[in-house]
Write a structure and sequence with these properties.
The structure is a homodimer.
Chain A: H1 5-20, H2 24-40, H3 42-58, H4 63-69, H5 73-88, E1 96-101, E2 107-114, E3 117-121, H6 126-138, E4 142-146, H7 152-168, E5 176-178, H8 183-189, E6 198-201, H9 205-214, E7 227-231, H10 237-249, E8 258-264, H11 268-281, E9 285-288, H12 290-293, H13 304-308, E10 315-321, H14 324-334, E11 339-343, H15 347-356, E12 361-366, E13 383-389, E14 391-395, E15 401-412
Parallel strand pairs in A: 3-4, 3-6, 4-5, 7-8, 7-11, 8-10, 9-10, 11-12
Antiparallel strand pairs in A: 1-2, 2-15, 13-14
Chain lengths: 424, 424
């Protein structure tokens, strides 16, 4: 008889308690063992992945879909390397972030503890299965993985490795629970507010909307990235062109790629023709407003839909704006609170841009593509939150923990009358 | 024509942007002006409150309900004093919590920004109206207040003061939005996921359950406190008795009062009769398990329901447990992740208790009644979160902000090929 979703999730919650009690050393050893197990089972994992790929191809999956689904020896080596890197990262659990002595004598500490059970709901990306499990375990959590059904064989092969490593560490296999049932099972999972501490949906807007609509458990959204580069009148134009190229071309399908280039009207005549030529030389298709089209030949008009779009492709919308405030107004209207960039050598304008925008990541004179857990020093990331709650921006292991209070005293009471009992 | 909930909330979101841009000095001045305005309008506020009280009395409200609803000159003075204290607290917004230079040269900062719009849903407690608004404004947020309808006249009088102070500061009145419509309006509010960044329900289990069930916006729950005091074999019994008295008697209706006393079997014969006598001398009704009843005369048997109850009254359940692990198991089963206390002079046992339990606040040799924003150094609190996400335990102004990333560079790009454009 198959286990019910509730029973399985409850087993994960119990297992999470055992994970929470592991010390840093034990967690490092567990993650190293997971890395070893994945490396040792590369052939089986790749064979399972080949079956997933064949089935997806037969079902008419797009090349982009197949690319996300595909593992190969190099990707698997990178995955193993990534897990070893997570193993080496500082342990967020037990970290004392603040300590103070109260007037009354006791000492108050803020200490990080695991969240408990984290549910990750994602698409057919088998690398996420191993990555997310490693980050959750590092942070002392149990994890429920519900990946896209097209990756079911790859995910099972990877989960097998995770379970063997857990077993060798004397931990219950339910610490990593792979759910490969249907959407009804996912729906059931999202109702378990007494078990699941956090659900993280990662994927297209449809998936995220579905999870948000139906969840009774807390959700941190990882929405689309409509990121902007604003080139100020006081920008270094060479740098700004490089930021545009890096932001658009280095990985167009990434959520931290730029989708719109905003250019100060004073900078546009000198900057825009050069930038457009450099971008077009790399195959970028440009659309623009009237101001931009007056400076760049053969550029189709941009619509409101263009400014709202996350192209995820070599396409860029361009708009000439009157000043930094017009750029800010545009970003407030069309931005997705993911990552915004200003190119300027004027410190005051930079500060104004930083303070006026509440995006998770704001960059001054640096590429939007640095908006990534690895690049920002988190070691690895479970995703990029655009929810302004708990975590905002790239989420590493620390974002899978929470600060609580620990108070150590010497019998202090709040009301002096509590002292007046009969002494022994 | 009355404003729609959505339009009003949207106006609050826009107003919140203006609040977010205030510097620390302006916020202090605003809060001081609010305090002055409340003090200057004490007579009108108390008259409105007297009308609320009369109506509630006529409707048959309980004494406890009337007590929460009631303001008097002293309570109003305390409220004003509290707002002046919030004004003097350090500003959490703009605080740089971490700074590092990446290998690539840019500097990464973690900086606190306001959440945006916070909705507070609470019962008929007019002091919360002023308190919550002050804390939200301090943290640079807009706030939507939906208090119990029985306090409508008091809340309107207080909101009037808030609005006059906002107007004098040149801020839109919608920065503090008082919703005194019916439950349907609250339902509509809880759907506005593009406007409301956080909903905090404060009150009885029914209210919290209603909000959690219906919200499409993020919710931080402030559930009941089933707090325990565990007296270890190695406890200082005099201290432990004082902790029991303070925890139960200093304010029985508070959520940080203790509801169950767990006593190590080795300590029980010496400790329990004395503790029971001291508690009974203060009017505490005791119920207990077999082990406790064997040591204390005339104590009725405790049921499972007793161990799960938040009495909020001078009643205490008592249980003799074999050791600290049995105490931990009891708390894991019946605790509400609010506040747990151990009395022991044995450091190892204390550490084991602290690590094994994941309550928001864990105390060693100090009263559960210190689980309070003021006592823990937060200055004031908007509530006590038992949700293990974003904030856990007492929430002050800082918990109404979120850390984001600010990166300052010199034109750094992620991929070196982005540099190879035609130079000027």
């Amino acid at each position: 008889m198959p286990e019910s979703i509730r029973d399985a999730a409850l087993a994960c919650k119990l297992a999470a308690q055992a994970v929470a009690e592991l010390d840093s050393h034990a967690k490092t050893a567990l993650l190293d063992d997971i890395a070893n197990e994945l490396a040792a089972n590369a052939t089986a994992i790749l064979a399972a992945n080949a079956d997933d790929l064949a089935a997806a191809r037969q079902a008419g999956a797009t090349p982009a879909f197949l690319d996300r689904l595909a593992l190969d020896p190099q990707r698997l080596r990178d995955l193993v390397k990534g897990i070893r890197a997570i193993a080496r990262m500082p342990d967020p659990v037990g970290r004392v972030t603040r300590r103070r002595r109260a007037r009354k004598g006791f000492v108050i500490e803020r200490v990080r503890v695991p969240l408990g059970v984290v549910a990750l709901i994602y698409e057919a990306r088998p690398n996420v299965t191993a990555d997310a499990a490693a980050l959750c375990l590092k942070a002392g959590n149990g994890v429920i993985l519900r990946g896209g059904s097209e990756a079911v064989r790859s995910n099972r092969a990877i989960a097998g490795c995770l379970h063997r490593a857990l077993a060798r560490a004397g931990l219950p296999r339910h610490a990593v629970l792979l759910l490969d049932q249907d959407r009804a099972a996912m729906l059931e999972l999202l109702q378990l507010s007494d078990i699941v501490d956090l659900a993280i949906p990662r994927g297209g807007e449809g998936l995220i909307r579905f999870v948000t609509e139906h969840a009774r458990v807390p959700v941190i959204k990882h929405y689309k990235g409509v990121c902007h580069l604003y080139v100020d009148a006081a920008a270094d134009f060479d740098h700004a062109i490089e930021l545009a190229i890096d932001g658009k071309c280095s990985r167009p399908a990434a959520c931290n790629a730029i989708e719109t280039l905003l250019v100060h009207a004073g900078a546009a005549p000198a900057f825009l023709p050069r930038a457009a030529a450099a971008l077009r030389a790399r195959g970028v298709e440009l659309v623009g407003d009237e101001g931009a089209r007056a400076l760049v030949p053969d550029m189709p008009a941009a619509t409101e839909a263009d400014y709202a779009a996350e192209y995820l492709a070599l396409k860029l919308a361009v708009r000439v704006v009157e000043d930094v405030d017009a750029a800010i107004a545009h970003i407030r209207k069309f931005g997705s609170d993911h990552t915004e960039v200003i190119a300027t050598e004027d410190a005051e304008t930079a500060d104004h841009f930083v303070h006026a925008l509440r995006a998770a990541v704001v960059m001054v004179n640096a590429s939007s593509r640095f908006s990534d857990g690895g690049e920002l020093g988190l070691g690895a990331e479970i995703g990029i939150s655009t929810t302004r709650l708990h975590a905002y921006g790239p989420m590493g292991a620390e974002a899978l923990t929470i600060e609580r209070f620990v108070l150590r005293g010497h019998g202090e009471v709040r009301h002096p009358e509590s002292r007046t009992h009969t002494p022994s």
